[in-house]
Specification:
With 96 residues, the protein is mainly beta. Helices cover 8% and strands 48% of the residues. The protein has one domain. The chain is built from 1 helix and 8 strands. The radius of gyration is 13 Å and the shape is globular.
């Protein structure tokens, strides 16, 4: 049986926190803007980041991030996500 893989974005995809949330390890988190680049990098702008979110992303272990609309529709799944740097926003990479 062949496993279905969702296609990687072929252009920059931008999600806003008004219409989407991210989920990591079953926990939902709010964000301002998430930009997913086709080169395997992404930028996550946070407003008042949840300490649990920064802990999960900062542990160095690759994570799966689900981008879900507030209507409950899964829009994107990013695998192997790891934090590269953090200032006001988090810069992450994902496995292509």
């Amino acid at each position: 049986m062949e496993k279905h893989l969702e296609p990687l974005p072929d252009k920059t995809r931008t999600f806003t926190g008004e219409s989407h949330r991210i989920f990591i390890d079953g926990r939902g988190f709010d964000f301002q803007v998430l930009e997913v680049q086709p080169d395997g990098t992404m930028k996550l702008d946070l407003q008042n980041p949840d300490p649990e979110l920064t802990r999960l992303l900062g542990e160095g272990e690759p994570r799966i991030i689900y981008v879900v609309s507030r209507k409950g529709e899964r829009d994107l799944v990013l695998q192997g996500c790891q934090m590269v740097s953090r200032s006001i926003s988090c810069h992450l990479k994902y496995r292509r």
